[in-house]
Amino acid sequence: MFNKKIAIFLLLLTALLVISGCAPVEQPAEEEAAPAEEGEEMGTYSVEFKNPDTLTYLSIAEPESLDPAVTYESSGISTLRNIYDTLVFFKGSEVDEFVPMLATEWDVSDDGLTYTFQIREGVTFHDGGTLEPHDVAYTFQRNLLLGWDFLEMGGPMGLYFDPFFNGFADSSEYGLGMGGEDGYGLLAAEGIDGDDVAVCELIKDTISADDAAGTVTMNLAYDAGYFPQLLAQPWAGIQDMEWMVEQGAWDGDCSTWRDWYAPDVSASTLYDKANGTGPYKLDHWTAGEELVLAANEDWWLDEPLWEGSTVDGVPAIKTVVTSVVEEWGTRLASVQAGDADLFDAEIAFASQTDDMVKEWTVYGGETTEHNPNGILRLVQGLPRPQSDDMFMNFDIDTEGGNSWLGSGELNGMGIPADFFSDIHVRKAFNYCFDRDTFIQEVAQGEGIPHRGPIIADMMGYDENSEIYDFDLAKCEEEFKLAWDGAVWENGFQMTLAYNSGNDSRRIANEILRDNISSLNENFVIIIADLPWPTYLAERRAGRLPVHLTGWIEDFHHPHNWVLPYMSCHGDFSGAQHFPEEMCGPWDDMIGDAVRLSGPDPDAAEAIYKELQAASMENAIDIFIDQSTGRHYEQLWIEGWYYHPMFSDPYYASLSKVAP
Fold this sequence. Notes:
- The longest helix is centred in the last third of the chain and has 17 residues, at about 580-595.
- The strands form 8 sheets. Strands 10-11-12-1-13 form a 5-stranded mixed beta sheet, with no helix packed on it. The chain has a 4-stranded antiparallel beta sheet with strand order 4-5-9-8.
- The chain folds into 3 domains: about 10-30 and about 50-60 and about 285-380 and about 630-650, D-Maltodextrin-Binding Protein, domain 2 (3-Layer(aba) Sandwich), CATH 3.40.190; about 80-280, Dipeptide-binding Protein, domain 1 (Alpha-Beta Complex), CATH 3.90.76; about 385-625, Roll (Dipeptide-binding Protein, domain 3).
- Helix 13 links the parallel strand 19 and strand 20 (about 525-530).
- It is α+β, with helices and mostly antiparallel strands.
- Helix content is about 25%, strand content about 20%.
């Protein structure tokens, strides 16, 4: 999400729930939380309980868009999760158990290829429309046809093209591939290449509604056991067809869908508006300042979604205000004053936050009292399936000029667009990054090395696999080999960017810069910050030489790790512009592995191990770490529960209760 929501906040770093069979696994060893040691001075904090009906969340980022067909970063995904209902929903903290939501029941054919959903009656959209099966079918059809061009730019619809249309398999059996020669970036089927109407009709045949029977039917290209996980994610949030058409969206006519295809982010119909059936309505979004949600007083839910759930009716929190506050000191001061209920915490500065913690829980363990005079609750060691890495661009986009490259030439004042196409450059950058220091000093020791795309204890992972350890001598050796010695002789200059407010990413860039610069006075690296939406846009456009971001899985399977990292069309790798001769064979392997993971897991695992090794051999990225997450909240917050796919809370479960 990147692109696995892809914000993806390094400070809530993560690790491993992981597979085969989607069961939780044992986590890396963590130190137990302990009360303050005798003689240790801790602060005394006192805050006033304010605004019981309003929750204030301080964030370092805001959504890129509110369109489910486009949004593929954590701020947008978290917002949409609270606005839109889906056909099914995750049961509690589970990733492979589901409860009915907008579908009261569903049936799966014996071969796993056909899903039939009975659609709930009596549900109304925020704007007053009535939910009907055709709204469900339209939502998926519209998103698939009109959503972001995932082959070129990255986006969530690629998650659905794969199981629906065998989108990542090179197989003539289905007659479908990843794209047509005309550059559609959708799908190419024998007999329909270049035929817009045929493409649309194929999608309508794949996802169809029967209003009279109250059902929606979906047909898959292969038995994708992970498919229900995709249906529980916000990209599958159901829209009102009639309302959408009134807003100027596609009207369902197969002859015209191309007119809406792949819009610029801000030009999509739902860029800054929303109309779901979920627990919250969009009140307003003032870009760069705040996004406000208001409780849906007509929400259809009138009983717990699952036994023991606090998601059991109209939300107790009537207003949710997400304020964009990039500077850590400002967020910290607001928390200390009691003006923030939830906030993006800086793991690098954990001591400043931990001093305020009264109730400290290591996930799955007992709660201890840390500071008797504290005001916060902390849950540490959350096993979020997330990683954070640096991605090197093999062919940087320079259209219209690109200041990130300096002069654009290897003359000591810049780098050429294909600087990272030389494997010696990529290996040098790997050897010069001090991962251990980052994990210990920035991630506070709460992590393990990331050993390639696939995370720990998942099919294809090997805890003893080769990685690039910090080694300045080897870094120097590789730089001297790079570009036939020209890098070492001429030097270079480039700029590394990070998203504003993310100090952990800033520090990671500084670690890399300082180590590289120490080798040669002619190696100059500048560090700059960008607002989150701008950072995303530059990354997706392939303009950044190197970018640092994280990945939160969209569904619990190694396919969702190798695809974005290694496919020619992956969310990260596509923007890195891997050469076809390198990633093309990987695409074939990725397609084979996901289809074998059910019937022949041993064969699938062998392929995943080969892919994992290839990522290191080719030094495609600087793989940094998987770290467990932390959740801080004011003591008056109740109802929070952990789910590995949620980067932020599901507000419908929360309430504020005076201490």
